[in-house]
């Protein structure tokens, strides 16, 4: 059996962050629940993890560090957290800000309402302009993340109430954000007006939970109530009284890449099961592309569901062609491309007995840079595959994302400068086909205007040129 070593970022697309917040009427070991919730959200960020809990009037105890959730927190660390009725947590992969502990979240600071804590998933594209203005007004910043700018803006506008500060701040933010905010004995959750980032509400025996995905709520044996609506601000006080208000300019454009890759397959986003969406993509691929092959397989983990859907419709037997080692030691993920290529790596093995002398259809969720696909195709050939036909359960990724998914500039995306035939030749496959956009949208249970599809077709829901996206210029 031959194997290859793949750079971490080349095998697993690095994505955004995961957030969770819990508030209860009673004090309890809140850090343990937050830990398990973050563990369920680990796929959304593997660079750093943090937990912050409220204790005593207007005080916060927190701990955050580089690494996976189970590397950052052990039983001693969790036992050090005081019993409390409110807390928030965060797992991070950097899309804005460099990779070091000062940029880990939650952001904790002293503000108008005592100690406050903010956790954020997404990317604010007018962050530089807001930061420049605040610095001119005398504000200081310790990190390079947009989440700290959000925190400063909320505090600035919270003179009369926390709720007012959150709403006024969010009215100024342009981009993608899901937030959980802890202050003034309250827990506040916010979803941006386009609902680009997922955020859901749950209940556990009267406790109120917010999380990026339903899988985190499920992991705590809680009940999923609903998704937050676009632009919704939900405030929960210490008596668990909950009320909502809305940010202006609501225009749903949820990130469709959540269904393609980002979310866990057992999650449900805006009423759609991610598993069902991926399975339907595989079925549509089988209807569109009838390939004479012996077996079909999926690239672990997200494409396996699509491969099973393809097998059902086509009748081509499903097999496991690739095995991913989930137990390789690690330090922390390096977000710069040069370090991605040379540091942390993941080992991927081909299951030779399943593919030797076989004509193989291999399904993947997407192709971003092309490096991974090329290495995987070669690995399968080296292990005896007679033919390797690739099917992609999404359209061509041709445009960068500026809303919190780490897809770099257009010239770093193979679909940004090569057509389908050229990509096929570059990765060394016998054939290559992509799922059309209309099929993906149908699988995700909506209309095209319901989703942000910018990474596929350049249809950005925000005029990105107006905000110098990709230039990251800070003028002081």
CATH architecture of the largest domain: 4-Layer Sandwich
Strand content: 25-35%
* Mean pLDDT metric: 89
Number of helices: 18
CATH fold description of the largest domain: Glutamine Phosphoribosylpyrophosphate, subunit 1, domain 1
Q: Roughly how much helix do the residues carry, as a percent range?
A: 25-40%
CATH superfamily of the largest domain: Aminohydrolase, N-terminal nucleophile (Ntn) domain
Computed over alpha carbons, the radius of gyration is 22 Å
Tell me about the biggest sheet? Answer: 7 strands, antiparallel
The neighbouring-strand order within the major sheet is 4-3-5-2-11-10-12
Structural class: alpha+beta
Q: What is the CATH class of the largest domain?
A: Alpha Beta
Query: Strand tally, please?
Result: 24
Tell me the count of domains. Answer: 2
Low-confidence stretches: 3-15, 329-334, 337-345, 471-476
What's the overall geometry? globular
Terminal residue distance: 57 Å
How would you portray this structure in words?
By secondary structure, the chain is an alpha+beta fold. It folds into two domains: about 5-10 and about 265-455, Rossmann fold; about 10-260, 4-Layer Sandwich (Glutamine Phosphoribosylpyrophosphate, subunit 1, domain 1). The chain is about 30% helix and about 30% strand. It contains 18 helices and 24 strands. The chain has a seven-stranded antiparallel sheet with strand order 4-3-5-2-11-10-12. It has a six-stranded antiparallel sheet with strand order 6-7-8-9-13-14. A hairpin with a 2-residue loop joins β10 and β11. α5 (about 125-135) packs across α6 (about 145-155) and α6 crosses α7. The longest helix has 15 residues, at about 275-290. The protein is globular and about 70 Å long. The chain starts with a strand and ends in a 19-residue tail after the last helix.
